[in-house]
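Continued from yesterday's entry.
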Amino acid sequence: MLVSYLRPSSVGAAHHAGGVTKLLVEKIRSRWPNVRIILRADRGFCKPKLLRWCENNDVKYVIGLQRNPVLERELKYDSDKVNADFETENCKLCRFTWFTDKARKWKRTRWVIGKAEHTDKGSNPRFVITNLPQPIADSQVNASPALSPGKFYDGLYCPRGEMENRIKEQQMCLFADRTSCTDCMANQLRLLMSSFAYLLLDGIRRLALSGTKAARWPVDTIRLKLVKVAARVVISVRRVMFQLCSNCPYQAEFKQVMER
């Protein structure tokens, strides 16, 4: 986790993405000046200003692109082919293609990957914009990237789903969506506390549970099975005693975490 920021509900999801990206890139390059940085995001973050900043600051990007009639025309041949094959084979099919596009608000031509997909729910075209294959000048728009569009889409864009899983893990398992205070700063503090909890539990998962069957437990499972262990509290005149169950089903995991 690099940023834990609660945006106002009156602005779009990508409203402050440019500023956050700039701060992160500066911080990373202050330690590792030659590292290659790739920004991967869904189509909500495909904003001309953010794309231009990435191109001007040597940051590569792989970002989803909102579908529109122009893009769908570029993908028409592949879409028709997939739709026809689906009628014959009756199973999920997809085809990928590279092409270039220059939207009205863009000052330059950019590479786009088109994914023509057809399932039992119908046609489902997807588009991804990137500056990774090679810089595009007006004289280079017909040059083809070396990597096949399918491998690029599956290898560089689809792993975005794993990022979403980690975000959902914090939201759903550690109450990051509990922003019920009337003050924005109080809600931001709640989000930060949830983030600290996530970092601690993820640290247990990475460092203390690696190589075990519990290495892929979500953080709420770790919280409920290793942290929130049931005990009986017995209070006497002289002491408060916690009686732990000797037959805990996760004794081995608990012991391993403590030892590591």
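--- second protein ---
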Amino acid sequence: MTSSPTLSSHGAEIPLAGFGTSPLTGDVTPENVAAALKVGYRHLDTGRKYGTERATGEGMRASGIPRKDIFLTTKVSHENLRAADFARSVDESLKALRVDYIDLLLVHWPSLTIPLAETMQALAKAKREGLARHIGVANFRISLIDEAIKLCPEPLVCLQAEYHPYLDQTKLLAHCRARGLAFVAYCPLGRGRLFDDKVLAEIAKAKGRTVAQVALRWLVQQNVASIPRSSDPKRIAENFDIFNFTLSDDEMKRIGSLKRADGRIANPVGRISGWD
């Protein structure tokens, strides 16, 4: 069975191919999670806000894959970033997942009202207590990333952010590399918006691949991990099967040129002041 290459950061080894469990496109079931693990995924992504932690944990146990072989990510939501709320959220996640530790614990979104210093101390505390092996942030702009690194007593290993061919993340990706952070892309298929793209369809046809595989491979060749989700066993398997073909430099450039000004999908009001 093919295994996923990993991204390294401060001792973390994050598999490039991840399985997302955001419920925005439908319910996530334990069967979906077990199916993903069966085809080779070892990186699972959930979040307290998603309401999918229980199903994720059940799917892990049903799969028969040892806990130590799974890289499990969950997140603390923006309304729980005060120290006491943060600790409670982590405890609730562990109970819902029925695990003793999280491999990667993320701040889901920054808060415009709760001091970042308090949040970073709470995040570091979860790591020091052994509740999280590694820690990071999601949806932080460049200036906030630097502030978080400065304020956190433990090393951050990852930024999770939206990234797909329609959204230009060149600056953010370069900054993460300069800071030694792994980049994990959510919405890597643009929540289905990429499927009718003529350029991607043309490249996919030439490669004998799906549009999703081409879009995910485009991220792989930038050393970016991704966490697509699907409830279709065939697509779950296809989305993992991205390590046995290569896009040419020209194909990479053609896909990169698809970026557009209205490409961003996740942009909730009041969560962040401006993007890079």
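The radius of gyration is 18 Å. DSSP finds ten helices and ten strands in the chain. Will compare against the first tomorrow.
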